[in-house]
Design goal:
alpha/beta; Rossmann fold; 2 domains; five-stranded antiparallel β-sheet; 35% helix
């Protein structure tokens, strides 16, 4: 379970969220500027809030009142941002193996092979990252985040460079893997179909404020009708 009570401010933007995320798969939904990326960065420990706390399965990750803010690498979490930040001096396999330094060579090799297969990128293992397409880079970044077996997976528009069919297939495989490995996943998106397709719990944000939290079919009912209306007019 992820327990969140955060307040953050950057320039004129003010984020305030307080919730318990108990579902295996949660979607943070909101239109551009709602605060989705900001919230994920706070959960990942990449940014610090003004005040508040974050706990994962009872373990305190952030508590500003007690000056606790664990570094990203100590949070048992993995994050994939909108722009994959791959290491350009390493090939794909070495990028995926980056968080596995404590593993022996044979274990690392097996894990890299397994994760690249999961994301549909096995053929890229020996490639340099500079020549990858946007979609390929996103797949590799996802494999790298999954490789160390995080307890919490944070995804910020992770399939934006993939077409609909490829995105749906990868999302289905990822959700099955997360369920099998007891990995709590939080996915930020502005695409209502991502939330509805996964039958997720949805945290709805609007201008930095938590508007609703509940099943996708309920929280996004209005968005679903709007989408169906657009499809009906096309």
């Amino acid at each position: 379970m992820l327990e969140v009570a955060l307040e953050a401010k950057r320039d004129a933007f003010h984020l305030q969220v307080e919730c318990r995320l108990a579902a295996e798969w949660t979607v943070i939904f909101g239109h551009s500027g709602a605060g989705k990326s900001t919230l994920l960065r706070l959960l990942a420990g990449l940014d610090r809030p003004m005040r508040g706390c974050v706990a994962l399965d009872g373990e305190i990750l952030t508590d500003m009142a007690r000056s606790i803010s664990k570094l990203p690498g100590r949070r048992h979490s993995g994050m994939v941002a909108q722009q994959p930040a791959l290491f350009p001096h390493l090939n794909v396999a070495a990028n995926v193996a980056y968080g596995l330094k404590a593993w022996d060579r044979a274990q690392r090799a097996r894990r890299v092979e397994e994760m690249l297969a999961l994301v549909g990128a096995s053929e890229l293992a020996g490639r340099r990252t500079a020549g990858l397409s946007g979609g390929q880079a996103q797949r590799v970044a996802l494999a790298r985040a999954l490789a160390p077996a995080p307890k919490l997976l944070l995804l910020d528009e992770p399939f934006s460079a993939l077409d609909g069919t490829a995105s749906d297939a990868l999302l289905e495989r990822l959700q099955a893997w997360a369920h099998a490995n007891a990995v709590q996943t939080v996915l930020a998106t502005h695409d209502v179909s991502d939330a509805l397709a996964t039958n997720a719990e949805v945290l709805l944000l609007h201008e930095g404020r938590q508007v609703a939290l509940g099943p996708a079919a309920e929280v996004l009912a209005a968005e679903r009708e709007r989408l169906l209306g657009r499809l009906g007019r096309s």
